[in-house]
Design brief:
- The protein has 346 residues and is an alpha+beta fold.
- Helix content is 40%, strand content 18%.
- It contains nine helices and 14 strands.
- A five-stranded mixed β-sheet has the order 3-2-1-5-8. A three-stranded mixed β-sheet has the order 4-10-9. Strands 6-7 form a two-stranded antiparallel ribbon.
- A hairpin with a 4-residue loop joins strand 13 and strand 14.
- Helix 2 packs antiparallel against helix 3, helix 5 packs across helix 9 and helix 7 crosses helix 9.
- The structure holds dinuclear copper ion.
C-alpha cells in the first residue's frame, strides 16, 4: 500500500456511492409508511376512489412482476456476459433476427396489455355512469382558492366543500383564470379545471368526515397553497348547514367594534371583491357571508382564527405569494374592527 486507505480506491468509492444511493432509496421507500397521510389514494373513503384502487392493485401487481423479471434479466446479463480484461474468446452467439424470440417478446407484452385493458375499460365505463339523484355543485377554480356554487339550493361557499355522506355529489368544474386540477384523493381521482371548458366529476363519501385534497395543476405562485377540503356531514347536519347558509347574518349593533368593522369593510374596498349577504356583491374573492361556518380560509391554507386573520389582513401576499388580495395598508385598529365584524358572519 502506498499511503492510500481503502476508502480512496475505486472499489471503496463505488461502495460509498452504493451506500449513499441505497440510503436515499430506503428513505424514499420508508416515507411511504407515514401514519399521517390524509391524501393517500390507498385509503379510499368512497365508492369511486375504491373502484380506482381495485383497478390499480392488479395492474400494479402485473407491472411489479414485469419489473422484477426485466431488471433481473438485465442484471444477470450485465454481470455474466460483460467484457472482462483479457477477454480474447470468440464473440457470443448473435440472436438478431431470431424469429421465435422476436414473435415471443412482441406477443407476450401484447397479451399482458390486452389482459390489463379488459378491467381498465370496464372501470372507465363504470366510472362514467351518471349517479342517481346527486347533489349538484359547481366548482370554480380561482388563483388560489375554490368557489362552490350550489345553484339548486341558492347558496355559495368557498374552500370547504360541504356535502352529505352517503349521497353522490356531481361536480361541474370551471375556471375563472388558468388551468387548475381538482383532487380529493380519498374520494376520487383528479379532474382538470380549464378556463372556457366545463368538466364533470362525481363521487360519494361513505362516512361523515373531513377529506383533504389540493389543486394538482401548477397554476402560479401559490399553487401549493391552493388546498381543498370536503366536509361530509350526516344528512341532518347537511340540511342544517344549508339552512344556516340561507340566513343572512344580522347587522352588528350600532357603535360596536363589529359595526366599525362593517364601515371599514365598505370604506377599505373589501366589499368590492367579497360578497356578504345583504351587504355587498363582490365576485373576485370568496363569499364571506358565512365565513365562520368554515374552519379554514385563504384556499384552506390557514386555520380560521383571529390571530391568523390578523396576520393575513396585515399583508396577504406576504403570507400567500401571488395572492390577488393586496396589502390594503390597514391600521391595527382597522384590522381589529374588521376581525370583530368577520366574527359576526356565522
Ligand atoms: Cu390551482 Cu394549482
Amino acid at each position: 500500500m502506498n499511503g492510500f486507505t481503502s476508502g480512496d480506491t475505486p472499489t471503496g468509492k463505488r461502495l460509498r456511492r452504493f451506500g449513499t444511493l441505497s440510503t436515499a432509496g430506503a428513505l424514499l421507500a420508508l416515507s411511504a409508511c407515514s401514519e399521517n397521510a390524509p391524501q393517500d389514494t390507498m385509503e379510499p373513503a368512497g365508492p369511486i376512489s375504491r373502484q380506482v384502487l381495485h383497478l390499480s392493485e392488479p395492474v400494479f401487481a402485473v407491472a411489479g412482476v414485469v419489473f422484477v423479471l426485466v431488471m433481473g434479466l438485465v442484471t444477470v446479463a450485465v454481470l455474466r456476459f460483460r467484457e472482462r480484461p483479457g477477454d480474447t474468446g470468440p464473440e457470443p452467439r448473435q440472436i438478431h433476427g431470431n424469429t421465435r424470440l422476436e414473435v415471443g417478446w412482441t406477443l407476450i407484452p401484447a397479451l399482458i396489455l390486452f389482459a390489463i385493458a379488459i378491467p381498465t375499460i370496464a372501470t372507465i365505463f363504470d366510472l362514467a355512469q351518471k349517479p342517481k339523484d346527486p347533489l349538484k355543485v359547481t366548482v370554480v377554480g380561482h388563483q388560489f382558492w375554490w368557489e362552490y356554487r350550489y345553484d339548486d339550493l341558492g347558496i355559495s361557499s368557498a374552500n370547504e366543500l360541504n356535502i352529505p355522506a352517503g349521497r353522490p355529489v356531481e361536480l361541474t368544474l370551471e375556471s375563472i383564470d388558468v388551468i387548475h386540477s381538482y383532487w380529493i384523493p380519498p374520494l376520487a381521482g383528479k379532474t382538470d379545471v380549464i378556463p372556457g371548458r366545463t368538466n364533470h366529476m362525481h363521487f360519494e363519501a361513505d362516512e361523515p368526515g373531513r377529506y383533504l385534497g389540493q389543486c394538482t395543476e401548477f397554476c402560479g405562485l401559490s399553487h401549493a397553497n391552493m388546498r381543498a377540503v370536503a366536509v361530509a356531514h350526516t344528512r341532518a347536519n347537511f340540511d342544517a348547514w344549508v339552512a344556516a347558509q340561507r340566513v343572512a347574518a344580522p347587522a352588528p349593533t350600532e357603535g360596536s367594534p363589529a359595526a366599525e368593522g362593517l364601515t371599514a369593510f365598505s370604506a377599505k374596498g373589501c366589499a368590492g371583491c367579497h360578497t356578504v349577504g345583504g351587504v355587498s356583491e363582490g365576485k373576485v374573492g370568496p363569499n364571506l357571508s358565512h365565513l365562520q361556518s368554515r374552519s379554514t380560509f385563504a384556499g384552506s391554507m390557514f386555520a380560521l382564527n383571529a390571530d391568523n386573520l390578523r396576520t393575513w389582513l396585515e399583508d396577504p401576499p406576504a403570507v400567500k405569494p401571488g395572492s390577488v388580495m393586496p396589502d390594503l395598508g390597514l391600521t391595527d385598529e382597522e384590522i381589529t374592527q374588521l376581525i370583530a365584524y368577520l366574527e359576526t358572519l356565522k
